[in-house]
Specification:
globular; 12 helices; mainly alpha
C-alpha cells in the first residue's frame, strides 16, 4: 500500500469519525441521517453525470451496496439510541476488518501476508479492547453495533468488487452515493409517516457538513480499494476509532481511560503493520 493511499485513508478515517460524532450528538438521529443521505445524493449526482460511466457489470454492485448501506444507516441509528460514541463506534468498526478480509479472501481471492494478517488482528483486537470492561454498552446496543459492523463489512466487500469492475472509481462512488441516499427520505416516511424536513438554521448546516464529509470520506475509500487489498483498506480505515475517542472526549465529554490508551496503541501498531506489509 503506497504512502499516498495510507495518508488519504487515514484522512478518510478522521472524516468518518467526525460525521458519526455529529450524528450521535443530534436529538433526532433518524432525521439527521435521512437528510444527510439525501444531501449526499444531491452532492454526488452532478459528479455521477459528468464522470465516466461505470461498466454494466458493476451496476448490480451499486444497487446491492445502496440497499446494504440503507440497512447500515438504520442499524447505526438504533445503536446510538442508547450507546455512546465511544461504546458503539469501536464495536461496529472493530468487527468490520476481519469480516472484510474474510470476504475478500472468499470472493476476490485476496491473501494477506503474515504481517498484514497481524495488522488486521491488532486493529480489531485494539478496537475490541476499547469496547469491553467498565462502562460497556447493554446487550441490545452491543448486538446492534455488531450487526452494524456486519453491514459495514458487507458493503465494503460489495463495493471493493464493484469498483474494480467499474473501470471508473469516481463514477462508481458517485452512483453508489445516489443509490444509497435517494431512497432515504422514503425510508423515513415509511417509519415516521411524514417527510423529513429541516429549517434553514444551524442544524441544516450541521447536516450539510456531515453530508459533504461522508461523500468525500467514502469516495476516498472506494478509490483506495480499486488500488489496494480490501482487508488492508478496511483495517486502516478503522483507525477512525482513535479520532472518535478524541472527539468523544473533547466534544461529547465521554471518558478516555488507560484501557482506551492501550487499545489505541494496538490500533496504531496494526495500522503501521498494514502500511508496511
Amino acid at each position: 500500500m503506497s504512502t499516498l493511499v495510507i495518508a488519504l485513508v487515514l484522512g478518510s478515517a478522521l472524516l468518518h469519525a467526525s460525521w458519526n460524532a455529529l450524528l450521535r450528538s443530534d436529538a433526532d438521529r433518524l432525521k439527521f441521517i435521512a437528510v444527510m443521505s439525501s444531501l449526499c445524493a444531491l452532492i454526488a449526482l452532478p459528479v455521477a453525470l459528468l464522470a465516466p460511466r461505470p461498466s454494466p457489470e458493476s451496476w448490480p454492485y451499486v444497487a446491492a451496496s445502496g440497499a446494504v448501506q440503507i440497512a447500515y444507516c438504520l442499524l447505526l441509528v438504533r445503536s446510538y439510541r442508547d450507546g455512546h460514541l465511544a461504546q458503539v463506534y469501536p464495536i461496529a468498526r472493530g468487527t468490520a476488518p476481519l469480516l472484510v478480509t474474510l470476504g475478500a479472501a472468499l470472493f476476490a481471492g485476496e491473501r494477506l501476508t503474515p504481517l498484514g494478517l497481524a495488522g488486521v488482528g491488532l486493529v480489531s483486537t485494539g478496537i475490541t479492547t476499547l469496547t469491553f470492561g467498565k462502562g460497556r454498552p447493554d446487550l441490545r446496543t452491543a448486538a446492534s453495533a455488531v450487526a452494524t459492523g456486519a453491514a459495514i463489512a458487507s458493503y465494503m466487500v460489495i463495493d471493493g468488487l464493484g469498483v474494480r469492475l467499474s473501470g471508473s472509481p469516481i463514477g462508481y462512488a458517485a452512483w453508489q452515493a445516489v443509490a444509497q441516499g435517494a431512497p432515504m427520505p422514503f425510508v423515513y416516511l415509511l417509519l415516521r409517516r411524514r417527510w423529513p424536513t429541516l429549517a434553514l438554521d444551524v442544524n441544516l448546516l450541521r447536516v450539510a457538513v456531515g453530508a459533504a464529509i461522508s461523500v468525500l470520506a467514502y469516495g476516498v475509500v472506494l478509490w483506495a480499494m480499486s488500488l489496494s487489498p480490501m482487508g488492508q483498506v478496511s483495517a486502516l480505515r478503522e483507525t477512525s476509532i482513535l479520532f472518535a475517542a478524541v472527539i468523544g472526549a473533547i466534544f461529547l465529554r465521554e471518558p478516555f481511560t488507560p484501557r482506551g490508551l492501550l487499545g489505541a496503541g494496538m490500533i496504531a501498531a496494526g495500522a503501521v503493520a498494514l502500511g508496511f506489509c
